[in-house]
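for the record, two folds in this file. i put them one after another cuz i was lazy. first one right below, seq on top, structure tokens after. the second one comes after a little note so u can tell where it starts
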Amino acid sequence: MSDNLPTFEMFLRRYGRRTWRWRVCTTEGRLVMHGSENNRPAAKYAAERALFLMLLAAPYRPASQASAMARSSMATPALRWLPRQQMRE
């Protein structure tokens, strides 16, 4: 795994009376994601959510580990609702 993992920063800026714009950038200043919301808490939430989702799908995570985690988290609740006969097959 590479030692040079990207680092991201989140910016919020007010435009006008009711609009807040958010950006997620690399530390070098390259824009990764952006958007706008009507109030500051919503803009902060949207920026944090975008950053989280981006990190969740990061290419430096091993694909086998990510898909195994997704399968296990999706399969666990479904098994509770299957009848016992179908679980054994």
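(here's the note) second protein begins now
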Amino acid sequence: MRVPGVDFRARMRGKTLWAICAHTAKDPAEVEPMLGTLRLISDYLGMHWGGELLAYGNRPGEVLTDQGAADRARDLFAGVAATQPVAS
């Protein structure tokens, strides 16, 4: 972040950060430290926090059976599509 000429912090300011990940914790609260860290990074860089999408998966393809995550993904991305310009 301190490499001369990169201006990383300035380039990230105003952008939106989302956390989209699979986890193996039986209790999703165990993922909170990671989410808290990402929220702090978002604040530090002057970014907008877009939210998180967590899906349980311990084996390949298992996240596809997490219907709650699929529903949350649909809602999250519908909101994103309505508010964000499409990147080219």
